[in-house]
Amino acid sequence: MILRPLHDTDEDAAAVALVAAAAFGASRALRGGGPPEETPPERAALLRRRNRYLARTDPGGCWLAVDESSGMPLGVSMSTRREGTWGLSLFAVLPSVQRQGVGRELLAAALAYGRGCLRGIICSSADPRAAATYRRAGFALHPAMRLEGAVRKGDLPAPDGAVHEGSAKHRDLMDSVDRRTRGGAHGPDHDQLLAECPLLVVDDLAGSGYCYVGPDGHIRLLAATSRRLASRLLTAALLSLPEGTTARVPHLTAEQQWAVDVGLTAGLEPSTSGWVCLRGMRPPEPYIPSGFFL
């Protein structure tokens, strides 16, 4: 096996997608899930753009394991470093080479990139092997929930204040909220997120916050300076979805009861879903992390 930096190329982005699909598909099967659905072309293109983005912004944190003789990709780890906050965006190993040390080497390389960072965050799948790995690496495991379903807009009250469409001009505001909630600004991640989906912003005398709403109905990332503003943002985000869209609010820890309350009012169903793994920090609130941008 050779461990090398991930390159900003279509070939490496496709290799990452191949490994991730095989690894997560096998994990679902072990937990009794059905066969994986085919990834829609637009979703596949989005994932490739994300993979290339991190290869550019964090070359020291993104690694690909390949077979020495064939060059076949075996595993991948992708991590970020943002103002003293480290995050693991992706960690996957082909099922055929698991328990052979590939994952250990990949995770060690990603963790080394975060050396010196005071805080760390991982949004883990429900795979118990992943949770055990992250706990052994020194992360506290916080059980996570998700809310999912069709939004009953008639049951949602109107937001209790103004919510505006956001843009790149709100970068300083968002970085400031990031520092307050998670200890480090997302910085360039906001440029990538702005290219992917609409942004909602609140900014008034009570405080500030923001929310990215994916066109697929997923809440990609939300942060605010108070639970009241976070509830306002989530309410506005759910109301903004087209009729018939399935909303999904992931990675909620027990500290995010404000989000559970909004989701239940909107008719979404709660379920358990993986872990938010933290090191050197308490669960950030009011905050809904992105599984990729953290």
Distance between the termini: 29 Å
- Note the beta-strand portion: 25-35%
Mean pLDDT over the full residue set = 95
Radius of gyration: 19 Å
Instruction: Count the DSSP helices.
Output: 8
Helix content: 25-40%
What shape does the CA trace take? globular
Keywords: Transferase
InterPro entries: Acyl_CoA_acyltransferase, GNAT_dom
GO molecular function: acyltransferase activity, transferring groups other than amino-acyl groups
Organism: Actinacidiphila glaucinigra
Explain this structure to me?
This protein folds into 2 domains: about 1-115, Gcn5-related N-acetyltransferase (GNAT) (Aminopeptidase), CATH 3.40.630; about 145-290, Aminopeptidase. The chain has 8 helices and 13 strands. The chain has helices spanning about 10-30, 40-55, 100-115, 130-135, 170-180, 190-195, 225-240, 255-265, and strands at about 1-5, 60-65, 75-80, 85-95, 120-125, 140-150, 165, 200-205, 205-215, 220-225, 245-250, 270-280, 285-290. The protein has an 8-stranded mixed β-sheet with strand order 1-2-3-4-5-12-6-11, with helices on both faces. Strand 2 (about 60-65) and strand 3 (about 75-80) form a beta hairpin. Helix 1 (about 10-30) crosses helix 2 and helix 7 packs parallel to helix 8 (about 255-265). The radius of gyration is 19 Å and the shape is globular. Keywords: Transferase.
